[in-house]
Design goal:
The complex is a heterodimer of chains A (about 110) and B (about 120).
Chain A lengths: L3 E2 L3 E4 L5 E7 L10 E5 L6 E4 L13 E6 L4 E6 L8 E8 L5 E3 L3 E5 L1
Parallel strand pairs in A: 2-10
Antiparallel strand pairs in A: 1-3, 3-7, 4-5, 4-8, 6-7, 8-9, 8-10
Chain B lengths: L2 E5 L3 E2 L5 E8 L7 E7 L6 E7 L4 E3 L7 E6 L4 E6 L8 E10 L3 E6 L3 E5 L2
Parallel strand pairs in B: 2-11
Antiparallel strand pairs in B: 1-3, 3-8, 4-5, 4-9, 5-6, 7-8, 9-10, 9-11
The chains are: A mainly beta (about 110), B mainly beta (about 120).
Chain lengths: ~110, ~120
Amino acid sequence: NFMLTQPHSVSESPGKTVTISCTRSSGSIASNYVQWYQQRPGSAPTTVIYEDNQRPSGVPDRFSGSIDSSSNSASLTISGLKTEDEADYYCQSYDSSNQDVFGGGTKLTVL
Amino acid sequence: QVQLQESGPELVKPSETLSLTCTVSGGSISSYYWSWIRQPPGKGLDWIGYISYSGSTNYNPSLKSRVTMSVDTSKNQFSLKLNSVTAADTAVYYCARRTCGGVCYLDYWGQGTLVTVSS
Protein backbone atom coordinates (compact mmCIF):
# COMPACT_ATOMS: atom_id res chain seq x y z
CA ASN A 1 0.00 0.00 0.00
CA PHE A 2 1.01 3.68 -0.16
CA MET A 3 0.85 6.72 2.07
CA LEU A 4 -0.24 10.27 1.35
CA THR A 5 1.89 12.91 3.09
CA GLN A 6 0.66 16.44 3.72
CA PRO A 7 2.29 19.37 5.50
CA HIS A 8 1.04 19.61 9.06
CA SER A 9 0.06 23.25 8.73
CA VAL A 10 0.08 26.23 6.40
CA SER A 11 -0.89 29.83 6.95
CA GLU A 12 -1.61 32.79 4.74
CA SER A 13 -3.33 36.15 4.81
CA PRO A 14 -6.84 36.92 3.60
CA GLY A 15 -7.00 37.61 -0.12
CA LYS A 16 -3.82 35.66 -0.84
CA THR A 17 -3.37 32.26 -2.48
CA VAL A 18 -2.27 29.10 -0.69
CA THR A 19 -1.35 25.67 -2.00
CA ILE A 20 -1.50 22.46 0.03
CA SER A 21 0.48 19.48 -1.23
CA CYS A 22 -0.22 15.76 -0.95
CA THR A 23 2.67 13.45 -1.88
CA ARG A 24 2.16 9.79 -2.70
CA SER A 25 4.83 7.50 -1.25
CA SER A 26 4.82 4.79 -3.90
CA GLY A 27 3.12 4.23 -7.21
CA SER A 28 2.10 7.01 -9.53
CA ILE A 29 -0.10 9.85 -8.29
CA ALA A 30 -1.82 9.63 -11.65
CA SER A 31 -2.81 5.99 -11.09
CA ASN A 32 -5.83 6.81 -8.95
CA TYR A 33 -7.85 9.97 -8.64
CA VAL A 34 -7.31 12.29 -5.68
CA GLN A 35 -10.04 13.94 -3.65
CA TRP A 36 -9.82 16.80 -1.15
CA TYR A 37 -12.04 17.25 1.90
CA GLN A 38 -12.48 20.36 4.05
CA GLN A 39 -13.22 19.93 7.74
CA ARG A 40 -14.14 23.00 9.73
CA PRO A 41 -13.79 22.80 13.51
CA GLY A 42 -16.49 20.68 15.08
CA SER A 43 -17.96 19.64 11.73
CA ALA A 44 -17.90 16.65 9.43
CA PRO A 45 -15.71 16.77 6.32
CA THR A 46 -17.12 17.98 3.02
CA THR A 47 -15.78 17.44 -0.48
CA VAL A 48 -14.14 20.40 -2.16
CA ILE A 49 -12.38 18.54 -5.00
CA TYR A 50 -12.94 15.12 -6.56
CA GLU A 51 -11.38 13.35 -9.53
CA ASP A 52 -8.17 15.42 -9.13
CA ASN A 53 -9.67 18.74 -10.20
CA GLN A 54 -13.48 18.63 -10.23
CA ARG A 55 -15.54 20.81 -7.92
CA PRO A 56 -18.88 19.64 -6.54
CA SER A 57 -21.71 22.05 -7.09
CA GLY A 58 -21.67 24.79 -4.50
CA VAL A 59 -17.88 24.84 -4.07
CA PRO A 60 -16.53 28.21 -5.21
CA ASP A 61 -14.08 28.34 -8.10
CA ARG A 62 -11.49 29.74 -5.69
CA PHE A 63 -10.78 26.07 -4.98
CA SER A 64 -8.81 24.14 -7.57
CA GLY A 65 -6.97 20.83 -7.68
CA SER A 66 -4.13 19.48 -9.75
CA ILE A 67 -1.61 16.66 -9.92
CA ASP A 68 2.09 16.79 -10.76
CA SER A 69 3.67 13.54 -11.89
CA SER A 70 7.20 14.94 -11.58
CA SER A 71 6.80 15.36 -7.82
CA ASN A 72 4.26 12.54 -7.53
CA SER A 73 1.94 14.85 -5.70
CA ALA A 74 -1.47 16.42 -5.80
CA SER A 75 -2.19 19.99 -4.81
CA LEU A 76 -5.15 21.94 -3.55
CA THR A 77 -4.99 25.66 -4.30
CA ILE A 78 -7.25 28.19 -2.67
CA SER A 79 -7.17 31.70 -4.08
CA GLY A 80 -8.66 34.88 -2.65
CA LEU A 81 -8.45 33.40 0.84
CA LYS A 82 -11.30 34.12 3.23
CA THR A 83 -11.40 33.61 6.97
CA GLU A 84 -14.11 30.99 6.41
CA ASP A 85 -11.53 28.85 4.56
CA GLU A 86 -9.73 28.25 7.84
CA ALA A 87 -10.08 24.50 8.33
CA ASP A 88 -8.32 21.16 8.12
CA TYR A 89 -7.88 19.77 4.62
CA TYR A 90 -7.43 16.09 3.81
CA CYS A 91 -6.41 14.49 0.55
CA GLN A 92 -7.69 11.01 -0.23
CA SER A 93 -7.06 8.43 -2.90
CA TYR A 94 -7.49 4.67 -3.18
CA ASP A 95 -5.30 1.71 -3.94
CA SER A 96 -5.54 -1.17 -6.40
CA SER A 97 -7.86 -2.98 -3.98
CA ASN A 98 -10.21 0.02 -3.95
CA GLN A 99 -9.29 0.71 -0.34
CA ASP A 100 -9.39 4.37 0.62
CA VAL A 101 -6.23 6.12 1.80
CA PHE A 102 -6.31 9.47 3.59
CA GLY A 103 -3.50 11.94 4.02
CA GLY A 104 -2.69 13.08 7.55
CA GLY A 105 -4.39 16.44 7.08
CA THR A 106 -3.22 20.05 6.86
CA LYS A 107 -4.38 22.80 9.16
CA LEU A 108 -4.94 26.00 7.21
CA THR A 109 -4.77 29.20 9.21
CA VAL A 110 -5.98 32.41 7.60
CA LEU A 111 -4.49 35.27 9.55
CA GLN B 1 -31.03 16.16 0.03
CA VAL B 2 -29.40 12.99 1.31
CA GLN B 3 -28.77 12.94 5.06
CA LEU B 4 -26.95 10.43 7.20
CA GLN B 5 -27.25 10.03 10.96
CA GLU B 6 -25.12 7.85 13.19
CA SER B 7 -26.58 6.30 16.31
CA GLY B 8 -25.35 4.00 19.04
CA PRO B 9 -23.79 3.92 22.50
CA GLU B 10 -21.40 6.75 23.30
CA LEU B 11 -19.55 4.73 25.92
CA VAL B 12 -18.19 1.22 25.44
CA LYS B 13 -16.17 -0.82 27.91
CA PRO B 14 -12.76 -2.22 26.96
CA SER B 15 -12.89 -5.67 25.35
CA GLU B 16 -16.56 -5.21 24.41
CA THR B 17 -18.13 -4.57 21.01
CA LEU B 18 -18.76 -1.13 19.56
CA SER B 19 -22.00 -1.05 17.55
CA LEU B 20 -23.17 1.84 15.42
CA THR B 21 -25.97 2.29 12.91
CA CYS B 22 -26.23 4.86 10.15
CA THR B 23 -29.70 5.82 8.93
CA VAL B 24 -29.95 7.25 5.43
CA SER B 25 -32.78 9.65 4.61
CA GLY B 26 -33.64 11.65 1.51
CA GLY B 27 -32.43 8.91 -0.81
CA SER B 28 -32.23 5.18 -1.30
CA ILE B 29 -29.43 3.04 0.07
CA SER B 30 -29.49 1.07 -3.16
CA SER B 31 -26.87 1.50 -5.89
CA TYR B 32 -24.23 2.99 -3.59
CA TYR B 33 -21.41 2.02 -1.30
CA TRP B 34 -21.56 3.08 2.35
CA SER B 35 -18.47 3.90 4.37
CA TRP B 36 -17.31 4.20 7.94
CA ILE B 37 -14.47 6.56 8.85
CA ARG B 38 -13.21 7.46 12.30
CA GLN B 39 -11.21 10.32 13.75
CA PRO B 40 -9.44 9.99 17.11
CA PRO B 41 -9.55 13.20 19.16
CA GLY B 42 -7.18 15.77 17.68
CA LYS B 43 -6.04 13.42 14.92
CA GLY B 44 -6.72 12.74 11.26
CA LEU B 45 -9.23 10.63 9.37
CA ASP B 46 -8.89 6.85 9.51
CA TRP B 47 -10.69 4.73 6.91
CA ILE B 48 -12.50 1.74 8.45
CA GLY B 49 -14.17 0.26 5.38
CA TYR B 50 -17.31 0.21 3.26
CA ILE B 51 -20.20 -2.00 2.31
CA SER B 52 -22.28 -2.07 -0.85
CA TYR B 53 -26.06 -2.06 -0.85
CA SER B 54 -25.86 -5.73 -1.83
CA GLY B 55 -23.61 -6.56 1.13
CA SER B 56 -20.13 -6.86 -0.35
CA THR B 57 -17.48 -5.40 1.94
CA ASN B 58 -13.99 -3.93 1.87
CA TYR B 59 -12.22 -3.39 5.19
CA ASN B 60 -9.05 -1.65 6.31
CA PRO B 61 -6.51 -4.49 6.69
CA SER B 62 -5.43 -3.13 10.07
CA LEU B 63 -8.97 -3.53 11.45
CA LYS B 64 -10.26 -6.40 9.33
CA SER B 65 -10.06 -9.02 12.07
CA ARG B 66 -12.32 -6.97 14.35
CA VAL B 67 -14.77 -5.32 11.93
CA THR B 68 -18.14 -6.43 10.63
CA MET B 69 -20.42 -4.29 8.48
CA SER B 70 -23.97 -5.05 7.46
CA VAL B 71 -26.75 -3.38 5.51
CA ASP B 72 -30.53 -3.39 5.91
CA THR B 73 -32.10 -2.05 2.74
CA SER B 74 -35.63 -2.32 4.15
CA LYS B 75 -34.73 0.20 6.85
CA ASN B 76 -32.31 2.24 4.72
CA GLN B 77 -29.63 1.58 7.31
CA PHE B 78 -26.15 0.16 7.50
CA SER B 79 -24.16 -0.82 10.56
CA LEU B 80 -20.69 -1.20 12.01
CA LYS B 81 -19.50 -3.60 14.66
CA LEU B 82 -15.98 -3.39 16.05
CA ASN B 83 -15.11 -6.01 18.63
CA SER B 84 -12.47 -6.25 21.34
CA VAL B 85 -12.20 -2.48 21.62
CA THR B 86 -9.48 -0.65 23.53
CA ALA B 87 -8.88 2.99 24.42
CA ALA B 88 -7.22 3.38 21.01
CA ASP B 89 -10.64 2.94 19.41
CA THR B 90 -11.94 6.11 21.07
CA ALA B 91 -12.88 8.39 18.19
CA VAL B 92 -15.58 10.30 16.36
CA TYR B 93 -17.15 7.77 14.01
CA TYR B 94 -18.56 9.04 10.73
CA CYS B 95 -20.72 7.27 8.20
CA ALA B 96 -20.61 8.48 4.61
CA ARG B 97 -21.91 7.67 1.16
CA ARG B 98 -19.30 6.51 -1.33
CA THR B 99 -20.41 7.59 -4.78
CA CYS B 100 -18.75 5.82 -7.69
CA GLY B 101 -18.83 7.04 -11.26
CA GLY B 102 -15.50 7.30 -13.01
CA VAL B 103 -14.08 7.80 -9.54
CA CYS B 104 -15.28 6.93 -6.05
CA TYR B 105 -15.49 9.63 -3.41
CA LEU B 106 -17.38 10.44 -0.23
CA ASP B 107 -20.09 12.92 -1.13
CA TYR B 108 -22.38 12.86 1.90
CA TRP B 109 -21.29 12.50 5.52
CA GLY B 110 -23.08 12.09 8.80
CA GLN B 111 -22.38 14.58 11.58
CA GLY B 112 -20.31 12.01 13.46
CA THR B 113 -20.69 10.47 16.88
CA LEU B 114 -18.04 10.36 19.59
CA VAL B 115 -17.52 6.90 21.01
CA THR B 116 -15.40 6.63 24.13
CA VAL B 117 -13.88 3.35 25.24
CA SER B 118 -13.52 3.37 28.99
CA SER B 119 -14.43 1.29 32.00
